[in-house]
Amino acid sequence: MKNLVLLGAGHAHVHLLSTLASQPWPGVQITLIAPYPRLLYPDMVPGFVAGHYALDKCVIPLEPLLKNTGIRWLAQSATALDANARSLTLDDGSTLNFDWLSVNTEPVQDRQQIELRLPGAREYGLFVQPTEAFGALWPRVTELAQSHALRVAVIGGSALGIELAMAIRHRLPTSSVTLVTEGASVAAHDTSAVQQRVVQALKQRNITVLADQAVSIQAGEVTLTSGARLACDIPVIASGAQAPAWLAGSGLALDAQGFMAVDACQRATSHANVFAAGDISTRVDQPLAHSGVFALRTGPALTQNLAAVVAGLEPRPHAPSKFTLNLLSCGDEEAIASWGRYCVQGHWVWLLKDWIDRSFIQRYRKD
């Protein structure tokens, strides 16, 4: 029997798992490698931080999806991959051989890399990845805020950093919140219309924005490139994701940032038996932003292509939409939406985002 290994339980793999009970793949043993028993939906994390959702309302349990599928689930993580030998090493030292491999792991914040450029981050920082760890630690912050006002600095000017800054402001109204954009302008990769709305939203919520870069973290303060020292009790590390360290020696073709290079079929450009979706991969034919929107839409295409290759058929190219609906929550029940050059804002946008997020969870929850 052939072996298919699914590494990670991201959006695309969750979609695949949801189809296998009703549409099993004969002649293949499927093994899922995922360290946590559920997917904590990243798009709902700012809402959880803001207090709009309980944590258990933001998750998709894996076990109900695996029921009646025959899939073997190993609650572990990968530490090494040899694509040429078709071998995966797990964190307990064991190895797993495969005929096909599909990778859909969540974004990685490489603690070692971040510590090199931001000394003190490991000791004092609250990392947003993995989301399970962040979700477990955030309630401790809210407990601290009950006894005294906190000084919170969100380090990283990505969409997630912006959303978290506004979510924290809503949840901790007496605390000070500063967004350190790491030298970039706010919402730098968005249109000018979105940038203007985001800047105004941050200003209205009394969030201090510093277009500076953090260079070190000590107890009670963050030092910036300018030499300024920012008083800070809770430094939230929301900087961009890095490629996992085990990819570097995998033998797979990688892009300049170390992510897996894949083609229009989500197949590794160097190994036809390896597929990937989500933030761990980069489309070489059509570079796309590392965005949950694209990861969500890749799920059905990845499922169809994996089903094809295990059946001995050729995979089909997946053509993403030119424009996507991007929704950015503002902490309170307001959000900003953009589609191409169009941009709107309001409570109704938040209601739309809330409906989309809840619908995604309900679609895949089988409990």
3D architecture notes:
This protein is α/β, with parallel strands linked by helices. It has two domains: 2-35 and 75-108 and 242-310, 3-Layer(bba) Sandwich (FAD/NAD(P)-binding domain), CATH 3.50.50; 111-238, FAD/NAD(P)-binding domain, CATH 3.50.50.60. It is built from ten helices and 23 strands. The protein has helices spanning 11-20, 45-50, 63-66, 111-117, 121-124, 131-147, 159-171, 192-204, 292-310, 347-364, and strands spanning 2-7, 28-33, 38-40, 59-61, 72-74, 78-82, 87-90, 95-97, 100-103, 126-127, 151-155, 176-180, 208-210, 214-218, 221-224, 229-231, 234-237, 260-262, 274-276, 281-283, 326-329, 335-339, 342-346. Strand 1, helix 1 and strand 2 (28-33) form a beta-alpha-beta unit. Helix 1 packs across helix 9. The protein starts with a strand and ends with a helix.
Show the helix and strand layout.
Elements: E1 2-7, H1 11-20, E2 28-33, E3 38-40, H2 45-50, E4 59-61, H3 63-66, E5 72-74, E6 78-82, E7 87-90, E8 95-97, E9 100-103, H4 111-117, H5 121-124, E10 126-127, H6 131-147, E11 151-155, H7 159-171, E12 176-180, H8 192-204, E13 208-210, E14 214-218, E15 221-224, E16 229-231, E17 234-237, E18 260-262, E19 274-276, E20 281-283, H9 292-310, E21 326-329, E22 335-339, E23 342-346, H10 347-364
Parallel strand pairs: 1-2, 1-9, 2-5, 9-19, 10-17, 11-12, 11-17, 12-13, 18-20
Antiparallel strand pairs: 3-4, 6-7, 7-8, 14-15, 15-16, 21-22, 22-23
